[in-house]
Amino acid sequence: PGVQREDAESDWSADSWSDYGSRDKPGTTLGRTVPDGNVLFPDIFHTNHLLFYERFRAYQDYILADCKASEVKRFIAEYLEKVLEPSGWQAIWRTDVFEVLVGVVDVNFPALKAVVQLSEPFLCESQDSSFTLECMQELLELKEHQILLQELWVVYDESGEFDQTALAIEHVRFFYQCIWRTWDEEEEDEFDYFVRCVEPRLRLHYDILEHRVPSGLVADYQNLLSQCEELYEKFLNVRNSISSNDSDSEAENVSMVEGLKLYDKVEHLKQKLKLIENPLLRYVFGYQKYGSLQAKGLRPSGAKVIHVVPWTMTANLLHLLARDKLCPESCEELEIQFHRDPLTAVNACYEGDTVIICPGHYFVDGVFSIADSIELEGYGLPDDVVIEKQGKGDNFFDCTGANIKISNLKLVQHDAVEGILNVHHGKTTLENCVLQCETTGITVRTSAELLMKNSDLYGAKGAGVEIYPGSACTLLRNGIHHCKEGILVKNFLDEDYEAPKITMVNNIIHNNEGYGVVLVRPAMPSEMKDASAQGTKELTMLRLRKSNSRIILMMWLLYMTVGDVLFPALGNTQPTQAGDETACAESSRQEQPGCVTDELELYKQAGTSEQTENSEIANVLGATSAKRSQVHKKRLSKLGFTEADDNLMSQEMFVSVEGNQFKWNGKGSFGIFFF
User: Which residues form the SHC SH2 domain (predicted)?
Assistant: First the structure.
């Protein structure tokens, strides 16, 4: 990037930055940038640093408003007519192969193009020397001296006269580079284009810039986008060849079949893109891919090693280690290695090795990728053996080994995109650990197994534990608290996957923002039938959900209804008024004693016979969930959704549920979301 020179402080207040304001202020409010390269081009306006809310407000309030997809170009042209200076300014015309200084003499607003001529003196920089003055003049004549506005970078001017011109062109350039898709114009006009496409894509762009999206998911999105653009171009070529040929030949029939196949592929890719662009669906569906971890297997010698990581080594500590850990019954062939940090020790492990971490506070900048069956053990209490992540990154612990055990550690996560621990394959046992999270907590992927016992997990901005279909998760005597959701069970991705197998015994799930447990699963036929009985409107909506527009309708429903019920932090982007916060707080204070009393009564009833069958305990917990959800149930049932189910805990996924306590969770013990 070029060097920035700020001649005046940028004033990005709510009134001064807008595309209609500040013309009466003396001097520019924008910074300047020195262009890269060997040619001494004049400085240009620095406009590519705009914040999310600045672009959001420009597109929503001034440029696109409530236009439809087919009206986008016309709305942009009308906006430019109001703010763009039609002539009298210079710009650098940039392409992939050259840059040249031009002067703008007019603007063709309907075509979103500027009429330009070469500036004097002639300034041009290219990858080769073929772009001479004569060559550029011929090129401009071929283009009728008209250039797309997004290819122009406005030359800096201190007067402030061209501030709005520079900002307007920046908005157009960003829109066509980051927001607009070639297939958008063919989308249905029933929906507001800004709400349907611009806002989710704009949010995704800034989520990526601020490292809120896993790097693997970003790569997937870019690949999907490239594939979709390539296939859509092929589809257009096939469609144009058919429309230009009126004959009913065999070749045309083949082209029609090919066109239909391409259309189906494009629609499939577009739906995948929409799932990633929508922040709520991106959160619910999650990201399943991970880096391919290769297990080392056994050492060539067959020996097993104990790796010791001391913060500081004293004679007394060495004596205790030798007594407790380093001298098993058969220690003649035992090899011991010492390491400076836990990550180095884990990376040096082979199948069957053990890592012993001595008391201390270790700062690690990297990812623990564990592909072999090893043991990672803290020597002492969890609060005495702390591993804290430094630096930004997607993951902290990635586990794919057949049998991994982690014990007596405190893990502290910062600046991560994914959860604190991901179990992708094999079995991971987590015992007597403390996990201080920042994003999601533990994720148990399909075909993986987690055994978590006597541990404490808190602070996750997502779910404390995410459980995927086809996985097995056993939770024994744990605390899961102060997370957005306690446990999120995903049972919807594919009919081929089995329901997750979950055992929950004597856990305390409390003080979470949402529910203690949230299930996401497809609606059963009986539930669909009950919903359709509500009337013609509900029946129509259910049919729509099965049609090609299923994803579109689902996105709207999630945003408008479920977003603020099950996932308030993701579904609601509007600021809360102070009065509303006070009212909510007072309502919560008034309601809590009664709720707590009811819960304690239920716990007493359940505690009188801990040997009661799982189904009886499930009925008690399910009744609690149903009671808590009555406020929202009527509203959601009109849309074909049911938030709580009386038979919730009797689902086949829950293998064993005994002695769990659910206290002071913001929305109740259990909730269910039908997909």
Answer: 54-282
